[in-house]
Structure formats: C-alpha cells, structure tokens
Amino acid sequence: xxxxxxxxxxxxxxxxxxxxxxxxxxxxxxxxxxxxxxxxxxxxxxxxxxxxxxxxxxxxxxxxxxxxxxxxxxxxxxxxxxxxxxxxxxxxxxxxxxxxxxxxxxxxxxxxxxxxxxxxxxxxxxxxxxxxxxxxxxxxxxxxxxxxxxxxxxxxxxxxxxxxxxxxxxxxxxxxxxxxxxxxxxxxxxxxxxxxxxxxxxxxxxxxxxxxxxxxxxxxxxxxxxxxxxxxxxxxxxxxxxxxxxxxxxxxxxxxxxxxxxxxxxxxxxxxxxxxxxxxxxxxxxxxxxxxxxxxxxxxxxxxxxxxxxxxxxxxxxxxxxxxxxxxxxxxxxxxxxxxxxxxxxxxxxxxxxxxxxxxxxxxxxxxxxxxxxxxxxxxxxxxxxxxxxxxxxxxxxxxxxxxxxxxxxxxxxxxxxxxxxxxxxxxxxxxxxxxxxxxxxxxxxxxxxxxxxxxxxxxxxxxxxxxxxxxxxxxxxxxxxxxxxxxxxxxxxxxxxxxxxxxxxxxxxxxxxxxxxxxxxxxxxxxxxxxxxxxxxxxxxxxxxxxxxxxxxxxxxxxxxxxxxxxxxxxxxxxxxxxxxxxxxxxxxxxxxxxxxxxxxxxxxxxxxxxxxxxxxxxxxxxxxxxxxxxxxxxxxxxxxxxxxxxxxxxxxxxxxxxxxxxxxxxxxxxxxxxxxxxxxxxxxxxxxxxxxxxxxxxxxxxxxxxxxxxxxxxxxxxxxxxxxxxxxxxxxxxxxxxxxxxxxxxxxxxxxxxxxxxxxxxxxxxxxxxxxxxxxxxxxxxxxxxxxxxxxxxxxxxxxxxxxxxxxxxxxxxxxxxxxxxxxxxxxxxxxxxxxxxxxxxxxxxxxxxxxxxxxxxxxxxxxxxxxxxxxxxxxxxxxxxxxxxxxxxxxxxxxxxxxxxxxxxxxxxxxxxxxxxxxxxxxxxxxxx
Length: 932
Fold this sequence. Notes:
InterPro entries: OMP_b-brl_3. Residues 419-446 are annotated as: Disordered. The protein is mostly beta strands and 932 residues long. 5% of the residues lie in helices and 63% in strands. The protein contains 6 helices and 49 strands. A hairpin with a 2-residue loop joins strand 40 (751-768) and strand 41. The longest helix has 20 residues, at 2-21.
C-alpha cells in the first residue's frame, strides 16, 4: 500500500514538473485578404484566456511573420490587429500534445471592403470606462434599419427602458439626454431617444452630470444628474432627416407625430408635433421632476420657500400622466443651437408648448392600523384634469479669452391647469360597523409663472490649477389659484345606523403665492501640490416669499364673500443664508479622493399678517462630504461617496395652515421641532471584459437619519385623526438599496445572458395613539435576461423573475402584507419574405395573497403588430397593431406607509387595434443614409 502511494506521489510530481517545463510556440504570417501583401508591424498579443491578461506581445516583421516562444502550458487567446483592418481573435491551448501552434497565413480584411459573407473571429469593445464616464460603442451592437436611439440603448448592459421610454441605468433614472453635449429640447429625453436615428450615432456616454461650476473646478459639489450623451458621427451632421406617423384605431384611439431635423455646419434646427390618446406619445415622463412641486422646497444650503401647493391647497395637478386615467395629449416644440466665432460663442434655444387632458375613475381600499384594532376605509373617485404650458429656455456661452468664460442661462414657464373631482369615502371597524362617510367635490383653476436667470463666470489664473468662478442666480415664481370645496362628512357611534354628528364645508378658496430668491457662490481653487488641491467657497443667498390664502364661506345671498379666518392666512417669509466651505481633492495615478465640508448659517423670519405675529429662527447647517474613486484599469472602476446634511423642519411641520379639505385628519403645528441629520453612503463597482463581452456591476446606498421628524397621530373610534410632527430620539430612520447585474455572451448558443439581483428596505417610525410604530417596507427581486439577434431574421429579448415584498407594522400583528410576486417582459420581431415583419411584446405581473389582502392580482398585457415595408430602404411602413390583446390592462397599485396598507384600482388604457403609416426620411452627408 505504501509503495502504491509513493509511486502515485512520484507520478503526480513528475507530471506536474513536466507540465511546468512545457514550452510552446505560436507563429504565423499576417497578410491582406485581397492582395495578400504583408502587414508589417501588425500588433500580436497573447492573452491568458481566463482573465484576458496580456502574457506576451510582438509585432510582425517586414514579411508579416511573427513568432512567440517560451509559452507555458495553458489556454490562451491570440489577438492580431492592424489599423483600418478587422481584428483576428482565436483561442488555443498549449499542452503536451500541442507544443507548436502554426496559424500559417492570417488574412485580415480591410474594414472598408468587409463584406457580410466574410467571417472574422473577433469581438469589438462594447464599452469602456473613461474616468467617471461609461462609453458605449454602437458598432458592437446590432442596429436594425430605421432603428431609433432608443432601440440601440435597449441593448446596452445595465440599462433598461420601459414602455413609456423611461431610462434606468445602474438602478438610477436617467433624467437628461444630450446630443453632442448640448441640450436638445431641454427636459424631455424621449424626444432624443424616440426620434434620432441609431445609425447616426458614433458613441453614447453615460455619466453623472455635475453642475457647470463643479465641472469647471473638477470638484464634486453634490449636484449630479444621471445623463446620457449621444455623440453623432461627423458625416451625419450635415443634412436633414425626420419622421411622420399617423394612426387610427378602434374605440376612438388615435395617434400622430411629425419631426423634422436640419443639421448644417455647426447648427441644429429641429421641430416636432405630437398628438394622441394612447398614452404612448407626447407624455414626456421627464417633465414631472421639472414641474412637479411638493408642499415646500428646500435648497442644498438649507433654505426654505413657499410653494403653490401647501397643505391647505385643493387638489393640484402637475401635468404628469402615470398610467392612471385616459389621456388626450397635444404637444410641440422647436429647437436651435449654433456655434460661431471659432467656437468661442454658442447658443441653445428651446421652446415647447403642450396641452394634456386626463379623465378617469379610481377606487381605494385602505387598512388603517391602530394599536388594538384596525379601521377599513374605501373611496370611489372620478376626476377630470387639463393643463396647458409654454416653456422657453436659452443658454448662451462666450469664451472671452483662453482663460475667461461667461455662461448665461434663462428660462421661463407659463402653466395653466384646471381640475375637478368627486369622491365618496366610507370608514368601518373590524366588525363592519360604519364609523364615518363623506361626499366631496372640488374644482380648482391654477395659473403659474416661473422665471429663472443664471450666470456663471470662470477664470483660470496664471498658476496651473488656480481658478476663480462666480455663479449668480435669480428666480421668481408666482402662482394664483381659485377653487371650490364642497364637502359633507357624517360620523357614527358604533352599532348605531344614524349619524350623530355632521360637518359641512362649502367654500371658495383663493390663493396667491410668490417667491423671489437670489443666490451667489464664489469658488477659489488652489493647488497645494501636484496631487492635492484645496477648494474654498463662499455663498450668499436671500429670498422673500408671500403666501396669501383665503377661504370664503357662502353668504345668505349666495355669494362666496364671507372670509373664514380659521382657514385663511397671509404669511410672509424672509431669509438670508451665508455659507462657507472647504474641500480638499487628491488625485494621483489611479486614485481620486476628496473630503471636506460646508457650513451655512440661516436667518429665518416668518410673519403672520393677519395676527401681526412673527416667528424667527437661526440655525446652522453642516454638510460633510467624502468621495473616493479607484480606476483598476480602463474598464474597471470602484467609487464610494458619503454626504451628510442637516435637515431643518418645514414650515408645514412647524406651523401648518388650517386644512378642512380632509375632515378626517387635522394637522397641528409644532414650533419646538429640532433639525434632523441625514447620512447618505453610496458606492458602485463596474467591470467589463472585451473578449468575452462580460460585464459586472454592483451599486447601492445606505441612508440613516438621526433625530428624525415623524408623525404623531391620535385617532378616535370614529376614524377622526389629529396629527402633529415630533422628533424621535435614540432611533434612526434607515433605508438602503442594492442592485447587481452580471452578463456575458454564451458562444455555444450565440446568446447574451444576464442576471440581476436587487434589494431595498425602508424602516420608518410614527406614533399611533401614543404607541411607537415601526413600519418596514422592503422588496427583493431576481431577474434573468436573455437576448439573441440574427441579422435579417429575428430579434428576441426577455427578462423575467420573482419578487418578494415585505410590509409590516409593529403596532398591529395582523397588519403584515408580505407576499410573493412575479414579473416578466419579452419582445421579439421576425423578418418574413415580401418585406413583412411580425413583432410582439408582453408583460406579465403577479401579486400574491397577503395577510391583509386575501386576493391575488394577475395580468398579462400582450401586444402584437404586423408591418409591411416599402421602398428600397424600407423607410415607408404600414402596420396593423393590437394593444392589450387579452384585455387585461387593469390599473393596480399596492402601497404600505406608517402602518397603513393601501390598494388602488383605476381606469387605464385597454385593448384597441390600430392601423398606422410611418415614413422615415433622411438625407445626411450628401446622400441617403445607408442601412447597416
């Protein structure tokens, strides 16, 4: 036995020794495919197969020959490249049976003469990392004839585009899409992605766009916008192109759009018009963040402003369509930009006008959890809304000399809206006894005006790295609204069928709100060494706001002219802010590190005109920040950041305005609130391997708020609540999200596969009838992505996976709403003879039962179309489309917040069939665009 073991060990040792001593050779001769001439100095790289690390490198001799010796045993990749020729890539092994790998003649094909039937073994780098920018190469992806930028971006790893055109990259929403680094129709990314042609694109860049001042200094100021920049090919910057589409369908559905673009020299002129009621065009999702406003606004230095939607405001609408209701939209715009004077001056102008009408119905079921019981509320609501808005923005930049630049931005918005709704509510206890019911109707007309001007001057001083920049801005907003509230609420004693108290409101509400704000920021950068830079800043801002809100009761003669002092107020707000900050930035080799903090002192005064009383406050905001980045190599990067800031109480929390719109909830102010402090940690890692087309990304964040401001709600046995905001000591409100993606091309089946994992969790607190309640909301999901493309045959893409949602409230053990869900999407197109194309897509959604909601929700939305192409370039198309073929598109939503569980169903767009004709036209670079 011992002899056997000894012999075996000797054999293994000898085998490993011989294996280690194996020395292989690879050789060949590199020539041109057509004329067979030698390609002298062609680069020859030997890469280790498992990780693409360079092992050896040489260049071809005068006769094109090359030879690499002393290659140890293993698996390798040979990469041969030569300027203007397609790369040659092949994988081979060196072992005891193969010591010499002789390729003979390796014929490279000229890219300009490369024909579709020539097969080259090779991959093109789909993406690369340049500092903070992830750059995608369209040539590495499949581009269908007449495809749009949206169709190209859908193929990028780590980026998703939903059915409305909303772009999500690495778990974050992309809110801005630029063309050659310039604004193109401002704030609606879909006007770029759905209209520009994919074959015009040279590269697409993804990055966090910094403020102009931060971009100049190179130091992060915390103001970032997830941005895509579409860079056009040089030969596609002269000519014109556009698209016209018209369609009509069943149930009175229709759509139409037209867009024309004229590019010449360094000028771009574009105009578009869109109309329809399908919810798929003309509803720029990006507008919501631009125009939607909360009940207050807080700047990054701690300033507070009145808004046009305080908590006494009647239902106001921001013009956003989110799938709820039936929309009718009409919108149009014009864009122009130009550079002149040797690119020292540039201008960018956008004008947009739009009108949207929205109508529908909504039903809500709500479980309000108390300490020992629950109240069940139902409501039925119908609504009609309309908004018209005009927006103009202009950007002008001039480089006065090589060191001094001035940039001016001006924009104005005029918005008018009107809305009306009718709602019926009912509240019952756990035994089904009625506690309250109400009937309410509201109408509201709003007229908003906004004007902003911003100027930035930047100066580079004599010493390299020493700069001075000054940013000045002025903003003015004005909002007027006029609306009517008619409400009747009845309250019941349990087990009694007749109400024992009734509250009636019949009022005219007139609001006039305005804000004026000035802000300045001066930044000085000083290089302390080759690697270290100090950034000092001083900022001053001053603002003044007025909010005159009046409620009028109906007088005996039927006019609304009796002022109700309880629900009327006239506030004035003045504040000044002084800010100082110091940031240190270290940059050397592969490392970028910055740290520092800003401090702002705020003087705040609120004056009540009606009562001739004032409220004053002074406080200090503290905003530390840390940023770290390490570039392992060109396509591998790690980033980490921390930001902290003091969060001051809002006006509505300190001294809310009397509110009688919701008679079931009264809010009481708390002037003794202390500020909370928010901490935000963020990190991401990204890597990409060219030869295997493999990508891996992880990004996430963790937030916790110390001394958070939470609600304290007292609810009686009839469902009436009184709320007040208080600070929570010794506990922190926390949240996190984590998102990971991995994908690669599987050569055996010629398919790209990927997996995605995501998790997020929020832990919040509130007091319910003096007891502390902890609410946990979290979701965990897994999805598998598969895609395959065969040129002129078919295109297939699918993504699907399960999800688990958690919603619990500690106040009531019967309040858990935990349950499984499943989501899946697919889309595919098949090319048929006679220039026919069939395409189909679908979305499946499943939400399982929970402890609170004992019913499942399931729907499968299936769309399909058949298209006939005409003309030589297939740019005239006639289509028949069926949307929601199974008629299952039911509006549905579940939420959980502060111990309450809510489920909503609402009117939405359902099945229709449409006949449409579309024509893409183009003449760029002196001729018709040729299809790939």
